[in-house]
Hints:
alpha/beta, Rossmann fold, five-stranded parallel sheet, 8 helices
Amino acid sequence: xxxxxxxxxxxxxxxxxxxxxxxxxxxxxxYPVILTREPGGTPISDMIRRIVLDLRHNEMDPTTESxxxxxxxxxxxxxxxxxxxxxxxxxxxxxxxxxxxxYQGYGSGRDLDELETLTRIATGGxxxxxxxxxxLPAAEGLERKRRAAERPExxxxxxxxxxxxxRVEWNRLDARDLDYHERVRAGFLxxxxxxxxxxxxxxxxxxxxxxxERIWQTVVPLLAGIKPVGEQAT
Length: 234
């Protein structure tokens, strides 16, 4: 089986940037790798994402929210993540099931045993091999994300972008109060404490380059059994 790496963190921690940096470095060296996200990752899961994160859906019941996240995850695992891992590839995912435990469990007070049961059903027991958690105080992270969501993309109009810029969305969960986001952060740290062999906690105040290098040095030893695409036939 391949290698499954996830990135977690409070809003504005920079986890999406680091997930992309790791993907680009692995791809540049020829490793079979895909980058995906949750909720989303497949057409069906992306449709659920639009529903569950829409700012207009404040009437959504907590049970509905948990079931929708689980439905999106089930499709994602079945259609994209597990098939690629079976081929021996590397899957990098921006958020996974730990986010549901942190946000719906610790943040919203849902029963953790119930959420873990839903997660086992949705994933078929699949867990990441390695999870990076980028830690940042909740208030600081929310302010970072708010500024990014409001900032227009600044670029030279005469120079076409190499790739479309990442759009930062301010969603229904982001808009919840600070106490909620502080509980989410505490939840992530508790999850990491419970499984120290899987989690790596990183200070999100570090520069983008320093974080990327620390992540890379952690991942390199896990690549021993995965050959770059050009070497797989040899």
